[in-house]
Amino acid sequence: MTAAATALALTVSAGAVAAACDDGEIVIKFSHVTNTDKHPKGIAASLFQQRVNDEMNGKACVEVFPNSTLYNDDQVLEALLQGDVQMAAPSLSKFEQFTKVFRIFDLPFMFKNIAAVDAFQKSESGEAMKASMTRRGLLGLEFWHNGMKQMSANKPLNLPTDAAGLKFRVQPSDVIKAQMEAIGVSPQPMAFSEVYGALQTGVVDGQENTWSNIWGQKFFEVQDGITETNHGIIDYMVVTSTDWWDSLDADVRDQLATILEEVTVARNAESSSVNDAAKASIIEAGGEVRTLDADTRQIWVDAMKPVWSQFVDDVGQDNIDAAQAINA
Ligand code: LMR
Fold first, then answer.
1. For ligand 1, is residue 152 a contact (CB within 6 Å)?
2. Does any ligand 1 atom lie closer than 6 A to the CB of residue 91?
3. Cα 54 to ligand 1 centre (Å)
4. CA distance 168 to 44
5. How far apart are CA 238 and CA 87, in angstroms?
6. Which of 122, 175, 179, 303 has the fewest CB atoms within 10 Å around its CB?
7. What is the ipTM of this complex?
8. Residue 292: phi, psi to the nearest 5?
């Protein structure tokens, strides 16, 4: 299906984003959990869909299923292995069952900004991480960026001790659980699609996420405010199954890889501006954003950074050193 036909299909099918594919086209179902147009991942997936459906019309066709409409992140990797979807882009915190090497990305205050994450991923050890799950049947194609994580709760957070005793929703990552426990928070793993309701009903008191996720899911509506801690990152891996990827004809695989790489370069360059716009939208909508002075932020660093020592064996001191050298 061409891009114009995709656009028409999207308009007439009111809300459904998947584009109907033509007979004979290789169908690539791409499942993700965010919105399509105000989020670094959603925009990138939509652009990938548009370009494949235009440039590979008759050969291949991408159908994007956003907003957890098809699978949550805790189901999608199994669905990939079963061949029920062909691509996904879960956050690096969601690969816990498959590999421990991504734990470096969850360690608090490991990367000072997304440019540092980008540089680390482009290093030899970062590139090698894409193939770290092939023996489990998953292949990483590209890293996609989101942004820095912030803390929100149903009460003002200035110091880490303000969060002590609260329940925070976390992604299913042992590093993030340890980070929360380090500040006396009880971590509650939960699917992204359930977080708004859990915050609203008081099942959890707070959460950590990027500006684009806090804006996209409207978490700020059911929180006292957001504290700009920039304590960690959310980044993604575009992942496929090795079986499916290997089954493609070389020319199809190469063309898909080229389009994906171009989309990655274009959209990763915009991830920070998408998050800046989301932050501005939150403030404009009346959300409370609290900033930390340097001394107060250092108290968060001192409280959370000790968790690094628990995970050195998983991530490797050499990787930590490499990441820190990039930060310098
Ligand atoms: C989360 O679960 O909070 C995030 O990984 C969601 C996402 O895909 O950004």
1. no
2. yes
3. 29
4. 29
5. 7
6. 122
7. 0.99
8. -110, 140
Query: Is the CB–ligand 1 distance for residue 53 below 6 Å?
Result: no
* Nearest-CA residue for atom 6 of ligand 1: 192
SS3 123: coil
Query: Maximum CA pair distance of the chain?
Result: 62
CA 198 – CA 217 distance, rounded (Å): 12
Token readout for 77 is 């990797």
What distance in Å separates the CA atoms of residue 175 and residue 181, rounded to the nearest whole number? Answer: 10
pTM over 0.90, yes/no:
yes
Find all residues with CB under 8 Å of 68, minimum gap 6, and list them. Answer: 33, 191, 192, 193
Sequence-distant (6+) residues with CB within 8 A of 199 are 154, 169, 205, 206, 207, 219, 222, 223
pLDDT band at 5; cut points 50, 70, 90: low
Q: Where do runs of H (alpha helix) occur along the chain? A: 3-12, 40-55, 73-82, 103-106, 114-122, 124-129, 174-182, 195-201, 211-216, 242-247, 250-268, 271-284, 294-304, 308-315, 317-327
